[in-house]
From TrEMBL:
The keyword Iron-sulfur does not apply. InterPro entries: Dimeric_a/b-barrel, Rham/fucose_mutarotase. Keywords: Isomerase. It holds the Pfam family rhaM. The keyword Manganese does not apply. One of its GO terms (molecular function) is L-rhamnose mutarotase activity. SUPFAM superfamilies: Dimeric alpha+beta barrel (SSF54909). Its EC number is 5.1.3.32. PANTHER family: L-RHAMNOSE MUTAROTASE (PTHR34389:SF2). This is L-rhamnose mutarotase. It is an enzyme of class 5 (isomerase).
């Protein structure tokens, strides 16, 4: 299992809609997340900085392949069509990245 964290900005005018969407995530999207070997997935919001922090645990063996599987899912594509315009990537992300990866510097169980 690999712990993973990511950050992205959220546009302030979309915060309530983002919260509402995530209060009732579509079952098809949740099924795809599980099919792609992701568990214990949480998204946190930090205001007033309007920062989203995501944490999840990856239980697969080929993260790139699982991410491609997720990206090919029609329900997930529709979900992202709604949520992506609500977010704003950091200027420092690499080409093709949306959520910026965060490096773990400490962990204890």
């Amino acid at each position: 299992m690999q712990r993973m964290a990511q950050i992205v900005k959220i546009k302030p005018e979309h915060i309530q809609q983002y919260k509402d969407l995530h209060a009732a995530v579509w079952p098809e999207v949740l099924a795809t997340i599980a099919r792609c070997n992701i568990a214990n997935y949480s998204i946190f919001l930090r205001e007033p900085e309007n920062l989203l922090f995501a944490y999840f645990e990856y239980h697969g063996s080929d993260y790139a392949a699982d991410q491609a599987l997720m990206a090919a899912d029609p329900a997930t594509q529709e979900w992202w069509r709604i949520t992506d315009p609500q977010q704003q990537p950091f200027d420092s992300v690499a080409e093709g990245e949306w959520w910026a990866p965060v490096t773990e510097v400490f962990h204890v169980d």
